[in-house]
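Quick one: structure tokens for this chain, please?
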Amino acid sequence: MKKWLNILWKITGTAIFLIGIGIFISRVINIVPSAELSKKEQVISILEEGGCFVCHGGPDYCTHLHWPVIGRMISKNAEKGIRYASATSILEHFHNNKIIDEALLIKGQKVIAERSMPPVIYRIIHWKSPITKDKQRLLLRWIYEYMASDHGWPMPTQERPFEPVRPLPDSLPADLAKVNLGRILYHDPRLSADSTVSCATCHNPETAGVDNLDYSVGTDGLLGMYSTLTTYNAVFHPFFFWDGRASSLPQLSVLMLTDPVTMGNESFVDVVQRLEADLDFKSLFTGSYPEGYSAESISDALAQYHKVLITPDAPFDKYLQGDSDAIGPEAKKGYRLFKRLGCASCHNSVGIGGNSIEYMGLSNDFFSVRDSIRLPDLGRYRVTAKREDIHKFKVPGLRNIELTYPYFHNASAPDLKTAVEAMAFHQKNKQLNKRKVQQIISFLHTLTGTFREKSPAVSEGQ
């Protein structure tokens, strides 16, 4: 027994010694890149030397997968890492000068500010990977400057530190004549094949832009495949549908109007023919669109209407703008918890979500607890046919979230309590107690803004 204890002590002592040597060497060689390099070159050097792309750049960057023992451990981290945050847009920015995703920058800000990456196992074998305070200052400065120049974020100050969420603007510039045309079309059932379904049928402005059904009902009583996402504040999103298949509001409208279940039209020609019969509306429409009815003009009018489907003046917006009394103490605790758990890594910016596509079940499988997996559960895979996009979905915006139940693409959460508990477990591997769940819900209630939109009849009479 004493012999084995002696061997164990020697192994432990050797391991501690090697780790200590590693830490010492790391502090010696892990320095900020030369100031003679450009800011971009410095950032590239830190990310490459730190091995960020090993876990977040895809399999082409992970050269350690075949190492014995450690390779398997790194492989698991790399698989989770690419699911949590794909650095593709950063690589494309460095190589092709493409814009970096806003949501990815916010994820980066969190891990750099907290110096929570890379994992300990990676720091042991890569002595230049830890984020020192000097590297932290350089990277955060680069992120803040980039977000300010390319995404319009304010630079953080001591008085106003960085927040992952931004307040909604009071209004957006819009052509009011086209907005009104879009408003009329949005409420017009003639857009559907059987003239029974309008955009407002499923995206009702009177009920926060949704229908509160598990699955929306289209033409001929057919059920849709997903629960309804709200149209309120969608104008701030870069893509649409749960699988992200539309990259603009006009494209969203075209796809919806030609969907065989939702609107039942075989082509846009059917829509145009029905609208042509209304001479009064045609005269009004050609006043703003001289070319007349087309997929482009109709979808543009609907897109213009979305510019007034915004809900500013939420209590939380006022809080972000400096009114510390705009939300209560429980909501403040909920917001701090929301950030600490990493919820704001996906639910961020103006829409508090809606600007990224994420893996559902990052920490615990979301679908293994379901009775069966349906075709829509494949998520973005149905658009890209890429294996890594299975179970990835657009992150819904959280504004007015208390009103837009049920939740998730499959409507499996009927209320906020169920949704918060599910997200904490499946995405963050946390089982929150009742007090913490209620704190987050208190915060979510402060995201309900002011609904200013009026019915077409009132608007036309003004």
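The CA atoms of residues 240 and 246 lie 5 Å apart.
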